[in-house]
Amino acid sequence: MEWLVIIVTLVVLWMASLFKILHESLSASQVEVLNDGGVFSKRNVLLVIAHPDDESMFFTPTLNYLSSRGCNLHILCLSTGNADGMGNVRKEELYLASIMLKVPQKQVKVLDHPDLQDGFGKSWNYKLLSKIIKEEVVNCTIDLVITFDNYGVSGHCNHQDVHQGVRKLLQDTSHKEVEAWELVSTSILRKYSGSVDIWLSLLSAKFHLSGVVHCFLNEHPGRSLAAMAQHKSQWVWFRKLFVSFSSYTYINCLRKIN
């Protein structure tokens, strides 16, 4: 009987969460609920990721939100994800996914640098990352950079290195024309709580002690699945489950990097 009550409660929470996301996507109320004070409106934005599919697995709520607010979106992927020898395939898959996410293909750049190869235990040089990111910022007139936080959602070392590369860029940049925001990593329990995590994320952001945090509901959850499905070489059963049950499919919380 107790298990039945728990299951019913979870189902009700899940349905209520999905209803809230649907309600926000069909109305203008998200602007009021998640008011960012215009911080993210009509900016030249660069999303910096480590591997093809990072954008679809982790950042779709952010990309959907920014796209609908008139931002000019760019993606810089610092490797082809060639750990299994499929780098060329994965590169093309990222271009296809970017179309689903309303990011112009010509504004998606994928690197294949000999010192930035995909893999656990393969550390990336922060100075090199900073140099590459800075070149992209200058060339594309970027004023807002978005990337992983220090943990990198999954704890992947390449994700963490990308964060450090962006932080190095901020340290080495004398002017203050570029700001950077990081995707806040959550506990494993919250990570796999799906849409239910929107309540905890909103509550956590409201009372966050280490700076301002903005949370973005995914206005088009189906777009996340459509984008990830373009990564056919990665679209195996456990990633299908991840995208369905990951909180990052339904909400992103961004914190400014100081």
TrEMBL record:
Known EC number: 3.5.1.89
Pfam families documented for this protein: PIG-L
Gene3D superfamilies tied to this protein: LmbE-like
InterPro entries recorded: GlcNAc_PI_deacetylase-related (IPR003737), LmbE-like_dom_sf (IPR024078)
A GO CC annotation given for this chain: endoplasmic reticulum
GO molecular function: N-acetylglucosaminylphosphatidylinositol deacetylase activity
Family affiliation: Belongs to the PIGL family.
UniProt protein name: N-acetylglucosaminylphosphatidylinositol deacetylase
Native organism: Anisodus acutangulus
